[in-house]
Amino acid sequence: MADAPALDFAAYVTKKKEERAGGLAAGENDYSFVLDRQSRAAVESARPIQLAVASTVRLWKQVWRGQLLGSAVKVSDRQFPRIQGLTKECSQELGIRVPQVYIVNHPQMNAGTYGTDEESFILIHSALVDHYSDEELRTVIGHECGHIHNAHVVYLTTLHYLKTIAAAFVPWIVYPAMIPLNELSRRAEITCDRAGMLCSKNEQVAARALTKLVLGSRKLYDEFNLDAFLEQYEEGKDSLGRYMEAVATHPYLPKRVLAMRVFAQSELYKKAAKITPATGLTMSEVDDRVKALMKGEA
Q: DSSP states of 76-117 as a string?
């Protein structure tokens, strides 16, 4: 793997502004969540984020990337071709270059995307591979490819730095930078859940891929009742605990499932999934309903 380029945030912001001025609308795809796009525009001008990136990016090669190359296993046509095939399918569906995928030995089911827009990679925990079917893995990989497709990667990587490395060295700039990045991360998840659905073309599979994260037990998967789980969320959504979501990197999982249900009613999704009749909500209508779901999260 070639050396990763330094994350020059100022150059990145300049490039994105030039692209928008030229009408390229970088990262603004037809399925993306409108609040995600608004958050990305806001963080480009946030001085605390620029300071945080400048203070932490120099640790990329020396610390985290070196650990990755020493402890993870690269996916390719020769090694784990099944996962490589799923990655190629998702990349083709979204129209992006095939990203490099790594598998890391980890007991927690999770996946993430890191790097830059020019060189992004997906990291998948081994527990996820053990627990998920191919269709569920396709949803997860599609979700991660969505982060690449929607220009989230440099921001999520910055947030990763702040959470795992930079806090030990520059705490005075961490928290001002994390507030807008956490908000962007939550909204980006809504966009990328949609990307995962576009790759799996199956609403039930996409919901199951999400709910397995909260359950974590093979013995209980067959007994899990999604409607009962969503009712549980309704019971607690007016409690004080809901305010903790404002400092989280992800929306509460039931909210994400409900947002996916709204997207499944869209004309865009129905056409992609070849559902007939392919009539449904416009993306503006979808976003209005999802904004109502997200109300109070930030």
A: -SSSSHHHHHHHHHHHHHHT-PPPEEEEE--SS--EEEEE-S
- Joined together, the tokens standing for residue 245 give 């979501």
DSSP classification of residue 4: P
DSSP class per residue in 152-172: -HHHHHHHHHHHHTGGGT-HH
User: Is residue 166 one of the residues assigned to a domain?
Assistant: yes
Tell me how far apart the alpha carbons of residues 246 and 244 are, in angstroms, rounded to a whole number.
Answer: 5
Query: Residue 10 falls within a domain, yes or no?
Result: no
Task: For residue 218, give its domain range.
Answer: 25-294
Cα(94)–Cα(79) distance, rounded to whole angstroms?
24
Rounded CA separation 60/207 (Å)? 34
pLDDT digits (tens, 9 = 90+) for 185-231: 999 999 999 999 999 999 999 999 999 998 888 999 999 999 999 98
Structure tokens at 241: 């605990």
Cα separation, 135 vs 70, whole angstroms: 29
Confidence of residue 21 (pLDDT cuts 50, 70, 90): very low
**pTM of the predicted model, to two decimals?**
0.87
Number of C-beta neighbours around residue 214 at 10 A: 13
The answer to whether position 206 is within a domain reads: yes
Q: Cβ neighbours of residue 140 under 8 Å, at least 6 residues apart?
A: 111, 124, 128, 132, 196, 209
Establish if 9 belongs to a structural domain: no
- Give the chain's mean pLDDT: 85
Domain count, the chain: 1
Q: Is residue 209 within 8 Å of 283, Cβ to Cβ?
A: no
